[in-house]
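Journal club prep — side note

Before the paper discussion, L.F. wants everyone to see what a predicted structure for a comparable chain looks like in token form. Sequence:
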Amino acid sequence: MPEQPQHDVSRPLIPKPALKVRALLASRTVLDAIVTVMIFAVLLTLIGATAGLIFDFWGAASAFSDVVSTHTFAHGVVDGIVREVVVDVLSIFVLIELFRAFSYYLKFDRIRLWALAEVGIVFILREIFIGLYERRIDWTEILALAAFMAVLVATRIAAVHFEPRGDARA
């Protein structure tokens, strides 16, 4: 009778498929932890941006009341204050979309293409609005951003239209 190979009883043998499953579960746990930390970072940034918007709005209101009380409309002062408020509001919209994209990753265990397309669309709109408001964007840049936005909109439409069955947007 052939001799059976001896193995250490204190250390059980783990079959290779079980080892792969454990490695996948460990990597999944690490990825979930990283995404959770990113969600909290985006949430804290969103709270900070909202607080900054409130302070900017408060500063705008007090500066506007100072300008009105002295009857000297300094167009640059009012324009600068309004620009800061507009940039803050648009930045908050981008952060909200990022928060949603990370939340969908945790909920569905995969990246949702339409959510990423929405983040890109909101970011491009933010850049166009800020560039137009500050009068620092030329027509070629607007055209390029509009073409990129059209691609993102088409991607979002296709992602929603061709979404896998049983995985409808919640």
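L.F.'s comment for the group: The chain has a mean pLDDT of 81. Keep this in mind when we get to the figures.
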